[in-house]
Amino acid sequence: MEHVPKVSVVMPVYNNEKYLRIAIASILNQTFKDFEFIVINDGSTDGTREILESYNDSRIVLIHQENIGLTKSLNKGIALAKGEYIARQDADDISMPERLEKQIEFLESHNNLALIGTAVKIIDGRGAYIHTRKYPCDYSSIQKIIKQDNLFCHGSVIFKRQSFFEVGGYREIFFTTQDYDLWLRFVENFEAANLSTPLYIRRLSVHSFTYKKIAVQRRMGIFARRLAFAREKGISEKALTKDLQQFLETPLSSFEKKAIFRRYNYWSFLLLRQHKKNDAFTLMAEGVKYHPSNLYKLLFRIIKIFQISVLLKILIRLRFLFFVGK
Description:
Elements: E1 7-13, H1 20-28, E2 35-42, H2 48-53, E3 60-65, H3 70-80, E4 85-88, E5 94-95, H4 99-109, E6 113-123, E7 129-133, H5 139-145, E8 158-160, H6 161-166, H7 178-189, E9 191-203, H8 211-232, H9 238-242, H10 244-249, H11 254-273, H12 277-287, H13 294-306, H14 309-317
Parallel strand pairs: 1-2, 1-4, 2-3, 6-9
Antiparallel strand pairs: 4-8, 5-9, 6-7, 6-8
Helix pairs in contact: 7-8, 11-12, 13-14
């Protein structure tokens, strides 16, 4: 009789050759052993295929396919999964050795839960520590706040496969922030929690914070919240879905620019605090594009020329002074 694993770890990969072996090793070396590892090569054009095919481990289920994107790849992987639980893993991140063991232990001892995430350590591209991100742990707190912000790190979660199908899985209209839309539906129907222990390590690349990408992510997050409020009020989601493209193409409001700029400032400040000056300046160079003040932009350009960290810290702290009247 074929063994059915308790957990299916699902990891789509697209051109992640640089960190791929580290991510794979972090799963294969888990203290919890009863899992299958579904790895989906989503049409990579770098050395990903060769790296994946170099493994000879019976737990790995390897799929090569044409590029279809993260959302469809996740749905495909979970449809193939055999485990009672689905664990996510991103191809440039790291799971701590006891991650699966502690999450499964918590889920098994709390049968009311359908979803569990963890606190997360943030590292840079070289593996150096930046910050530890903690999320609300109890269901009551998550219920109150989740319509304001995404309270789960996507790569850190484990959820019940049956519950995933019951809420409709990842919705393919969400080409980004697909996780937030899913969590909102999970929390509406099932209890969820986070562990306060950082069991997952997320890699932050300053080059992934592009103007267009961040703006679209924010808009899709707003869209997910609008759908959640519609469901709460018993309103059909169809009208909102029909107007999505128009919503995405609408210019950002001053409020939205301010919110996005706050995000850039937050990460730039954390990078400076860890003495990562070059990364901080790179990130702020993208962030100032959202600032309405030409004076602020000019001050940043001057500070950047001389690469003065102290002055950049001061500018970050004065970030909203120049928003007055905007």
